[in-house]
Amino acid sequence: MKNVTTDSFQSDVLEADKPILVDFWAEWCGPCRAVGPILEQIDGETEKLDVVKVNVDENPDLAMRYGITSIPAMKVFVGGEVKKELIGAKPKAALEADLAAFL
Amino acid sequence: MHDVIIIGSGPAGYTAAIYAARANLAPVVLASSVEAGGDLMTTTEVDNFPGFPEGVMGPDLMFNMQQQAERFGADVRLDDVTELELDGPVKRVHVGGEVLEARTVIFATGSAYRRLGLPGEDRLSGHGVSWCATCDGFFFKGKHLVVVGGGDSAMEEATFLTKFAESVTIVHRSETFRASAAMLDRAKADPKISFLTNAAVVDVLGESAVDGVLLRDTVTGEERTLPIDGLFVAIGSDPRTHLVHGKLDLTTEGTIAVDGRSSRTNVPGVFAAGDVIDPTYRQAITAAGSGTVAALDAQHYLAELPAAVSA
């Protein structure tokens, strides 16, 4: 999964030509590390949606811009707008159900 | 067919795995995909687990337990159990599309964080309401926070949050605390932490993010608003039994009923251990001890099985 930064967020996420799931995460967040591999699987299994990661430790301004106060926080951007928000680590089946409209 | 399937991967599950593996029972541990390691994965220093004079980080302790179980042949899988068939000599454990069969099952699923059950809580979850200080404290630099609860986890969360927050108020319904003296004293000594006792959170306020809580004095009934930026909920947890409802007997406290000091449930070949059977102590070390009991009980049960089933 691609690591997106403050500098690349505009082109990688806001101007992307397909839905982008942004996983806001940090090294010190246990549930983030647990859900990371599941998001990677989902990314590998669909062409409709790309999954990217934002490290909130390294990009605190992005976390602030999107009002992140709990991680893992997963937001689906379509055409530059947040269309879906998920909070907390969940099993793959539950994530797929939540993201069904984009998969 | 497996001899032992262990469901859960906290101190009870991994300790059961260590004992079962050392008894050559090649246990399969269904550790869950996102909660492997259990509650200690979101804690910081654990200072009351024997053998670590300088303390140990919760995630490190759980990783060590996992490695210790794997060293003796435990098969730890990051899978979620979706359904159980426990009747009869062969237990069937559904893991997504796959069905695993075993002669014994050790159920060690621990407990799930209790929610306040307030309207604002769900709406503002992830927008200032949190259950994980180690995950989310970072986002509250210089902010004013409330931690609800009176146990060790509330004290630990409050103490951890002072690394980031300007102030932390511990709001607790009564004047007496379940927390250990060591944890309570540490919180009381912290200049950033203050206490509001005899106070209940009756609503979480804010449109798109938390901007306050409505408190009710549990003695006078008087209500008032406390402006804050974030709320951390640490009001305890409930035994995680949804997979066995209607299949195993529960106690009036909601834990799985076991026979005396053993781990035997009312279904032969099904054992339970850890917080899911313990309404009282709920410590990492008591859960670990309970996991030992379950592994030894399972071992004994297997040894007594008629040859037809054990073949």
Automatic annotation (TrEMBL), chain A:
Matching CDD domains: TRX_family
Q: Does the keyword Disulfide bond apply?
A: yes
Superkingdom assignment: Bacteria
Instruction: Return the SUPFAM superfamilies for the record.
Output: Thioredoxin-like
Q: Which residues form the Thioredoxin domain?
A: 1-103
The cross-references to InterPro entries, in alphabetical order and at most eight, read: Thioredoxin (IPR005746), Thioredoxin-like_sf (IPR036249), Thioredoxin_CS (IPR017937), Thioredoxin_domain (IPR013766)
Any one Pfam family match given in the protein's UniProt record, by short name = Thioredoxin
Query: Which keywords are on file for this protein?
Result: Disulfide bond, Electron transport, Redox-active center, Transport
The entry assigns this protein to a family as follows: Belongs to the thioredoxin family.
Q: What is this protein called?
A: Thioredoxin
What organism does this protein naturally occur in? Answer: Agrococcus versicolor
Its gene name is: trxA
UniProtKB/TrEMBL annotation, chain B:
Q: Which residues form the FAD/NAD(P)-binding domain?
A: 2-291
What keywords is this UniProt entry annotated with? Disulfide bond, FAD, Flavoprotein, NADP, Oxidoreductase, Redox-active center
Give the cofactors, semicolon-separated: FAD
Q: How is the cofactor bound?
A: Binds 1 FAD per subunit.
**Which PROSITE patterns does UniProt cross-reference here?**
PYRIDINE_REDOX_2 (PS00573)
Q: Which InterPro entries match?
A: FAD/NAD-bd_sf (IPR036188), FAD/NAD-binding_dom (IPR023753), Ferredoxin-NADP_redctase_2 (IPR050097), Pyr_nucl-diS_OxRdtase_2_AS (IPR008255), Thioredox_Rdtase (IPR005982)
Q: Which reaction does it catalyse?
A: [thioredoxin]-dithiol + NADP(+) = [thioredoxin]-disulfide + NADPH + H(+)
Q: Does the keyword Oxidoreductase apply?
A: yes
What does the annotation say about its assembly with partners? Answer: Homodimer.
Question: What does the similarity note say?
Answer: Belongs to the class-II pyridine nucleotide-disulfide oxidoreductase family.
| Identification of the protein by name | Thioredoxin reductase
Q: Which gene encodes it?
A: trxB
